[in-house]
Design goal:
The protein is of the alpha/beta class. 28% of the residues lie in helices and 17% in strands. It has one domain: 2-Layer Sandwich (Nucleotidyltransferase, domain 5), CATH 3.30.420.10. The chain contains 5 helices and 5 strands. The chain is globular and about 80 Å long. The model has no long low-confidence stretch (mean pLDDT 86).
């Protein structure tokens, strides 16, 4: 006869690594050529996404590593498909020698980075998790933009003219 016990079965606290949403085929930042790290050659970019209210709208930011030149890319939402469409349009509008590589964080919006590379020819490198200093210029710009557009703002309500005014300030 088996009697019931009052104690629950003990389970280990760590359930392993959560692999949902991990980006396949990432090229790590430590593989990046040293001339990109020196910030001497133009054509290398740092990218990120500023998400609007409920992830329903987004703006991509591209900052030149040498020049500090800023490109804002308005997107429908914060999905990987929108990121590929927006960033490929921005990168393809530049001369080839000014669009060589992009360094990005490990956000899920870059899950289709292979497709972006195929459309633009731009090599994409990924930073380590929780390492914003590896894209310092971009993070600083995003902080400045957030002064005018705090979290929870619906970014789809702003026109291109408004973005220009934010940058000038």
């Amino acid at each position: 006869m088996c009697l019931r016990q009052g104690k629950s079965i003990r389970r280990p606290r760590s359930g392993g690594v959560d692999r949902r949403g991990q980006i396949t085929g990432m090229v790590s930042i430590h593989v990046r050529p040293p001339d990109i790290e020196d910030q001497q050659m133009p054509g290398h970019w740092e990218g990120d996404l500023i998400k609007g209210k409920d992830n329903a709208s987004a703006v991509g930011t591209l900052v030149g590593r040498t020049s500090g030149y800023l490109i804002l890319v308005k997107m429908r939402d914060a999905t990987a498909t929108s990121a590929v469409e927006g960033f490929s349009a921005a990168l393809n509008s530049m001369p080839l020698d000014l669009s060589k590589s992009m360094t990005y964080d490990q956000g899920r919006e870059m899950a289709k980075h292979v497709e972006l590379t195929q459309k633009t020819g731009v090599a994409i490198y990924f930073c380590y998790p929780q390492s914003p200093w590896q894209r310092g210029s971009n993070e600083n710009i995003n902080v400045l933009i957030r002064q005018y557009l705090p979290k929870g703002t619906d970014l789809s309500k702003h026109s291109r003219k408004n973005w220009t005014l934010f940058i000038i300030r």
